[in-house]
Design goal:
With about 450 residues, the chain is of the alpha+beta class. About 30% of the residues lie in helices and about 25% in strands. The structure holds flavin-adenine dinucleotide.
Length: about 450
């Protein structure tokens, strides 16, 4: 491999700016690369290491933080996508790292397999999703990174390294939620499960009743979550129960119902309401009461990926914290009291989910059963006073921020939240001694790297 053309975005006089999905994280990379082979990725990294430059892999740009920003080479892996290998006996499937989650169901369909759990959307790349600890809900289910069984990375010297629980285990252990700091992931092996359906029941319910029965419900239902609309006492609950294909008739939402509920009400109408209330915050409590009535009263059954994920077209900014599961309802009560006390007007619902404990060093669920509380604001509304106030509460309870969502913590505070933080930093140093993958976000959350 002698190298391939690097595209300099825009003209030298007017370099092209990259922005994330929410539109508020921007950078001007020195060049953009779209490698189609592992050799090209290795060449890019080697070239950067030799010249003292930096490279940053980017997936779908769906992180709210500056985790994917760079003024070096931005490496888009869209051409490194697709299924590479399937082990029918174990259900382990290897994907090229740039594969989008939305493409996975069709790739797995011929083998009768599915991903064990998913988050709310499927726009992300597999590598991007695992690198920030993306998760869904279900007290017996871990985040997407817990499905990873092997990784192939290009590390800081341009070496291609395959790692798993038995091969380079320290690197594997850390790189499953690696924040993009360990190398450029070029392939991911996931433990998939036999395809399954989900029976979904979505209902508006009194928030206090949901909180009182919360711990029973998360144990009784495979995937339970709820949305609470601030300024109301209503929670929209979502209870998804798994079934084997054929064990129950599929009762999918009709395309018309999906269009009305998920696109027109949840996105289009909601977008209009958010735009209006952004100019008239006093209307938010009334609008929230209306939104709580309009959405979430339906029952259906469908293939897992169609139930787990929905489309999100209304742009927003988000902070999400992971707290010990046993204090989840207490933290939510404090958040609710704080919103009232400080008279914040919050147009977006608070999302509450849970996950099993895992052993991944920088997973937000490391070592503890976890409750997640996600807060949002419409993208045109300044969220920062609200986010800072909420973060104070989350921090009091040992909350760990989602790596891809707004937070204001630094390595100093984060180091105390993760028992294996130091070890992660030392594995990072071995994998990337020259700091090829560093950026400002990593300097903040992992501390500036001592470069060899
Ligand atoms: C509308 C919306 C809904 C969301 N829903 C959820 C949810 O339900 N649950 C949840 O937990 N999160 C959720 N998120 C957050 C999102 O899943 C994460 O931020 C995720 O990282 C985005 O994936 P991506 O492909 O866009 O990654 P990017 O944002 O592009 O990149 C994230 C990080 O991964 C690194 N990276 C990307 N590719 C590679 C690679 N090949 N090798 C090494 N590092 C790489 C980047 O360098 C960066 O550090 C949501 C975000 C949005 C905007």
């Amino acid at each position: 491999m002698t190298g391939f053309a690097l595209r300099t975005p825009g003209s030298p006089a007017r370099p092209r700016t990259w922005t994330n999905w929410a539109g508020d994280q921007r950078c001007t990379p020195s060049a953009v690369a779209t490698p189609a082979t592992v050799g090209e990725v290795a060449w890019l990294v080697r070239r950067a290491a030799e010249s003292g430059g930096t490279v940053k892999a980017i997936g779908a740009g769906h992180s709210f933080t500056g985790i994917g920003l760079t003024d070096g080479v931005h490496v888009h892996l869209d051409h490194l996508a697709g299924l590479q290998a399937v082990d029918r006996a174990t259900g382990w499937v290897t994907f090229a790292a740039g594969t989008r989650l939305r493409d996975v169901p069709a790739l797995l369909a011929p083998y009768g397999l599915a991903m064990a759990n998913l988050g709310d959307i499927d726009s992300q790349s597999i590598a991007g999703a695992i690198s920030t600890g993306t998760h869904g809900t279900g007290v017996a289910f871990g985040g997407i990174a817990t499905q990873v069984r092997a990784l192939t990375l290009v590390t800081g010297g341009g070496d291609v390294v395959h790692c798993s629980a038995t091969e380079h285990p320290d690197l594997f252990h850390a790189a499953r939620v690696g924040l993009g700091a360990m190398g450029i992931i070029v392939a991911v092996t996931l433990a998939c499960v036999p395809a399954f359906g989900l029976h979904a029941v979505e209902r508006p319910e009194p928030l206090n009743e949901v909180l009182a029965g919360y711990h029973d419900r998360i144990r009784a239902t495979d995937h339970f979550e709820f949305y609470w609309f601030p300024h109301t006492s209503t929670a929209l609950t979502k209870s998804n129960t798994r079934y084997a294909p054929g064990a129950a008739p599929a009762r999918p939402l009709s395309p018309a119902a999906r269009l009305v509920d998920d696109v027109l009400v949840a996105n289009t109408l909601y977008s209009g309401l958010c735009a209006a209330t952004n100019r008239l915050p006093a209307a938010i409590p009334g609008v929230n009461r209306m939104a709580a009535q309009l959405t979430g009263n339906r029952e259906f059954a469908d293939a897992s990926h169609r139930v787990f994920t929905t489309r999100r077209t209304v742009r927003f900014r988000e902070m999400e914290y992971a707290v010990p599961l046993e204090v989840l309802t207490e933290v939510l009560a404090e958040l609710r009291a704080m919103i009232d006390r400080r008279r914040y007007t919050v147009s977006f619902p608070v999302e509450v989910r849970c996950a099993a404990a895992d052993d991944i060093p920088l997973s937000t669920a490391n070592g503890r059963k976890t409750g997640y509380i996600a807060i949002h604001q419409y993208w045109r509304t300044d969220p920062f006073e609200y986010f800072h106030s909420a973060e104070e509460i989350f921090a009091e309870y040992g909350g760990r921020p989602h790596w891809g969502k707004w937070h204001f913590q630094t390595s100093e505070s984060l180091g105390k939240l993760y028992p294996e933080f130091e070890k992660f930093c030392s594995v990072r140093h071995s994998a990337d001694p020259a700091g090829v993958f560093r950026n400002d976000y990593l300097d903040r959350v992992l501390a500036p790297q001592a470069v060899d």
